[in-house]
TrEMBL record, chains A, B:
Keywords assigned: Calcium, Hydrolase, Metal-binding, Signal
Keyword field contains DNA-binding: no
Gene Ontology MF term list: arylsulfatase activity; metal ion binding
Family: Belongs to the sulfatase family.
EC number assigned by the record: 3.1.6.1
Gene3D superfamilies linked to this entry: 3.30.1120.10, Alkaline Phosphatase, subunit A (3.40.720.10)
Pfam families assigned to the protein according to its UniProt record, in alphabetical order: Sulfatase (PF00884)
Keyword Metal-binding among UniProt keywords: yes
Name of the molecule in the record: Arylsulfatase
Cofactor(s) recorded in Swiss-Prot or TrEMBL: Ca(2+)
Length: 563, 563
């Protein structure tokens, strides 16, 4: 509260000293302030006093709400959908374009807050890590969407939201896609969750490379039955996914068990659908259980849907689009309706904060037949373009958030870590020994538009910084060796598709310079707080019933284990 | 009612005879049915009986509403905005993307019906002709957006909606952009309007090539002051617009007078803004006058906005976008709010049908600095792509149309001619001696989604048929000489941007064949009802106060007048 944030020495030298005279801090429950990126210190210098006043008001409001709720902070239900970019859920005008509807998410939007400018990371694992740790994925080393058995994942050193909330007295449960690594320390149950049911990997193994897809001719290029291999020397090049672990179940720090799949079995779309329905039913079941406990709860349901490619999913099309992903988007919307109904039925809807959002843009390799498509923004998953990193995000919390509001303020997926920690009265458990990208956006959530505390984002593709957003402008970094003053800048209001750079005469020559300064400050902060490596280990540690084919796979992997 | 539609002989030969056994007709006030395109006869064969039943119900409902309104059909206020494609007005989720808002149009949408799949023509003049005549522009010869003094325009032979409604007892007024020709017979006052105030041409002359734009450096390429013309032999190549007629005023079949511009004067952005504000104020004034009369009225206000390019329009930016066209879109939305308020104030809102729509997609030559941009759909004005021919369209009529509904049924701008004629109880005045593309969509308007009567559209660029839409599919015609079975087909739900043709194996080889059949039927009907020429004449006939510079221009034009 009284202690002042101090910029690192090198940063002091790069911007005028005047900035560092008496910088107030965001009020903190503990003495030490949270360490944010350099850009935030600049905003703090400009808005710190106003923010400190707002923070007092907000803290009093949150305390009042806890008071009225028997002293407990709200329950949190965090629903993260896969590969759904901006305009794919909860916006009827846009659903129409694609010939399907998501009425339950639309209703949630009407009852809550629509975050109109949510930046995620460009891919599954990075977004999920960023949400869980409040740190951009690049800082944790988990920069790629994990696709195969790799023996790596989120380090135990990272502090997750589940750990923060556990410290504050929450009961924590994870259901569905996790995707933060296939090694023991990365598993949800070793990253703060009291109980979890989740697949170890992503959906490629399950929804694309299954037997149904092979029969339907979706994976002709993979199937040994569907191609003559006369000239094929290497018989292992094309992956056989059936040795990989599918879904596991377990409790905090305990062993995991693979479930619903036997040795020698072949995975089909039916397995996938049952697994997905299982996570949804598990979510409903856990809600009942958790609502009877004394603790506030943090329940995370991360569906693998709408990832779906085979026609056999569709008994009778429910959408005019008819593509498997459009059908699945509509289906998962119905499931979200079931979860929201359950909250009503249990009488806990008012004091439960519900988030529904997408994790990144559509994967352009999936579009077309799947029924998914790009729209509005250019690009998709893995791209630093807006199409890759802008998603719909809705938050409902009836006792605290005004119904039906839209905010255009910028927010980043890492902000959810910090914001939810504050809502849960758990800020003191946010670590102070590392750089936290997530900012506290509680004021915007409660007071609405113009109360946002972010006007910038650094966008990476994997480990490479690709663009810098500030206000409505986006600077695409030039390739190595090119002079950044010639790099293109886009006005996202005037050109949302990022295909016509601004005219340097119209916007002022040298418009790129402040972006270069931002880049230097951002990279400079890494001298003090370097990016870390992810963890490496033998895959599948702590899973007690590995199938023989999985054991053979682990033995091969162990031989190549990096130190 | 009893008489049956008969297909032309050649058409009978191309499709099975069974189609033509006992084809029922849409019920008509007069004996002769309206002549529609071949495609509609096929739909009529499939749905005629159901439609006839619905039509009886609808007619009874409309009669009831007239009864309750002192025997009068509703007033009609028809607001058509320029160069605003789909997603630019009335959709808050999409306004956000571009950093502006259109709250009044959004409110109109909430109070009325959103037509989510309105097809227009690809450019100003064609869309306006199509709306006025119920015929695709190609049938009337007015296929291009008129940009210069051309001595041509809509033929007197064509029958406009204003003429149809006049016959039925309406008082008719037009304010603002007209753009159907610069010759006497094409003027609004000679095409059915009792009174009109309108510019003769489009906005290029006024909003782009004015002195303000020159000073601001928008038109450096045009200005003789801003370029050295050392090697310029032809001093007339770059247009001097000031001799062209600007705005005129007049009454039915009477002379017109040019107003608010003197001989020798130079046009500025200020003139343009005053002109635009004048049409808006004239609309408010006419509403007051018309509301005191005994007749139902048809008041058409076609703003020239949001076309606007100079910064001097913007005293203080009202939008985060800040571009002149984004600012103007927000401004014209405010004006629409004034018109809607006036209807309330006059106590006539309930029995007034209000339409607000855009005429075609954004002109891609204007985007970027103007603040306008493409989004969702690919392409813009002049393109047959969805970006060129899809616009937002809203209809409010409180006593008849359910508030807040969206319909995904297809509608074409020509349908407004036929639909409004029916609403006005004026169907009998629709001519029966020509092909009318417009279908009666009153059932959809009143009964909602799935009551639409169209599942096809033929899309032209100028006089060239470029694509055929049927259901969710769009067939891009191949270039002359190419075999149409290889032409690309797009699934608009799965690929709204029309950049990934459907896979012929997935959709069935030969999927192009029914489109080729549609094309043949459509072109075949033209053997019986050929496309016509537009009218040609000396420009500016009947304008009684031409300035000396304009008279000189006309003299030059007269010398080249085509016979």
């Amino acid at each position: 509260m009284t202690k002042e944030a101090q910029p690192p020495k090198w940063l002091k030298a790069t911007i005028p000293m005047i900035f560092w005279l008496s910088v107030p801090t965001i009020s903190q429950a503990q003495e030490e302030p949270i360490i944010h990126d350099a850009e935030q210190m600049i905003l703090l210098q400009q808005h710190g006093e106003r923010w400190a006043e707002e923070d007092e008001e907000i803290s009093a409001f949150l305390a009042e709400i806890r008071e009225a709720n028997g002293g407990k902070p709200p329950n949190i239900v965090n629903i993260l959908l896969d590969d759904l970019g901006f305009g794919e859920i909860g916006m009827p005008d846009l659903d129409v374009i694609r010939g399907y509807s998501t009425p339950n998410i639309s209703q949630l939007a009407d009852e809550g807050l629509s975050l109109m400018r949510m930046y995620t990371e460009a891919s599954c694992t990075p977004t999920r890590v960023a949400m869980m740790t409040g740190r951009m994925a690049v800082r944790t080393g988990t920069t790629e969407a994990k696709a195969v058995v790799a023996g790596d994942g989120l380090s135990a050193w990272e502090v997750t939201l589940a750990e923060v909330l556990s410290e504050a007295g929450y009961e924590t449960v994870h259901m569905g896609k996790w995707h933060l690594g296939d090694i023991e320390e990365a598993f949800a149950t070793n990253q703060g969750f009291d109980y979890a049911e989740f697949p170890i990997h992503q959906q490629g193994q399950m929804a694309i490379m299954n037997e149904t897809a092979e029969i339907e001719g979706m994976t002709m290029g993979q199937s040994p039955k569907l191609r003559a291999d006369t000239l094929e020397l290497d018989k292992t090049f094309r992956t056989n996914p059936h040795a990989m672990v599918y879904g596991v179940v377990g409790s905090k720090n305990g062993p995991l068990r693979e479930v619903n799949f036997e040795a020698g079995e072949v995975f089909t779309q039916d397995h996938y659908n049952r697994m997905e329905e299982g996570y949804k039913n598990g979510t409903l079941r856990e809600l009942e259980r958790l609502s009877q406990g004394d603790k506030p709860f943090f329940l995370q349901w991360w569906p693998q849907l709408p990832i779906s490619f085979t026609r056999s999913d569709i008994v009778e099309a429910q959408t005019m689009n008819g593509g498997p992903m459009a059908e699945a988007t509509h289906r998962v919307d119905g499931w979200i309706g079931e979860v929201l109904d359950k909250l009503d039925e249990l009488g806990i809807a008012d004091n439960t904060l519900v988030i529904v959002m997408g994790d990144n843009g559509p994967f352009m390799q999936y579009v077309d037949k799947s029924g998914q498509s790009d729209r509005i923004y250019r690009g998709g998953k893995t791209d630093h373009l807006e199409g890759g990193v802008r998603t719909n995000a809705y938050i409902r919390w009836p006792v605290a958030i005004e119904a039906g509001a839209r905010v255009q303020d910028m927010i980043h997926v890492t902000d959810l870590f910090t914001t939810l920690a504050r809502v849960a009265d758990a800020e003191e458990f946010i670590p102070r020994d590392r750089l936290i990208d997530g900012l506290d956006q509680t004021p915007m959530m409660i007071k609405g538009e113009t109360y946002g505390r972010r006007d910038y984002a650094f966008i990476y593709e994997g480990p490479v910084l690709k663009s810098i957003v500030k206000q409505q402008y986006k600077f695409h970094l030039p390739p190595p060796g090119s002079n950044p003053i010639a790099a293109p800048i886009f006005d996202l209001y005037k050109n949302p598709r990022e295909d016509r750079p601004v005219d340097a005469i119209y916007y002022g020559v040298g418009f790129g310079i402040p972006f270069v300064d931002m880049m230097k400050r951002h990279l400079g902060m890494k001298m003090q707080y370097p990016d870390r490596e992810q963890a490496h280990d033998v895959p599948y540690g702590g899973i007690e019933n590995l199938r023989p084919e999985t054991q053979a796979l682990v033995a091969r992997m162990s031989a190549m284990k990096p130190k």
